[in-house]
C-alpha cells in the first residue's frame, strides 16, 4: 500500500468517524426535544457519511461508475438537507412549501443528469477530485449555492434577532463544504482538502448548536 493511498484511507476514516458521531448526537437531540431541524440536519450528516464511505472504497482502489454516481448524489445532499433544516425556523408556510417543491425538482434533475452522464473523469489516483461533466457540475453547484443562500439568510436573521454568534458559524462551514466537496479542486493537496473537510464539519456543528432553543415553525 503506497503512502498516498494510506493517507487517503486514514483521513477518510477520520472524517467518517467525526461525521457519524455528530449525526448520532443530532439524532439524540431529536429524540429528546422532537426538534425537526435536528432530524433533518442529522439526515444530511448521514448522507455525507455515505459519501465518505464511498470515498473510502475509492481509497482502497475500488472504482466503478455506479459508485461514482452514488458519491456525487450523496455529496450534493448534505447542504440541501442543512438548508431544509434551517427552513424550520421560517414562519411562512408558503415559503416552506415552495422551497420543499423546489428541492424535489432539483434532486430530480440531479438524478437525471447523473443517470445520463459519464462519470469516469472524477478518478484521480486514490482521490475522487477530478473533472466532472458540465451538467452534473452545474446542477450540483446550483443546489449548493441556493442551499448556502437559504442557510445564510436564516442564520443572519437569527443572529440579528438574538445576537447568537454561533449561528453564523455554519456559513463558513458550508462554504468550505461547497469548495472542497462540490467544486472538487483537483490541484490542491489531498491532505489540505481533508483538513478543510474536518474544519467544515466543526463549523457546521457549531452553527447547529447555535440554534438550540430557537423556536421552530412547523407546517
Poorly predicted regions: none
| Alpha plus pi helix count | 7
Q: Which outline best applies?
A: globular
Element pattern in H and E: HHHHHHH
Assess the beta-strand content as a share of residues.
under 5%
Q: What would you say this structure looks like, in words?
A:
The chain has helices at 3-33, 36-59, 65-86, 93-116, 134-162, 170-182, 190-210. The chain is mainly alpha-helical. It starts with a helix and ends in a 9-residue tail after the last helix. The model has no long low-confidence stretch (mean pLDDT 83).
How would you describe this structure in keywords?
219 residues, mainly alpha, 7 helices, 75% helix, 0% strand
What is shown here, in short?
The chain is 75% helix and 0% strand. It has 219 residues and is mostly helical.
Fold blueprint:
Elements: H1 3-33, H2 36-59, H3 65-86, H4 93-116, H5 134-162, H6 170-182, H7 190-210
Helix pairs in contact: 1-2, 1-7, 2-3, 3-4, 3-5, 3-6, 4-5, 5-6, 6-7
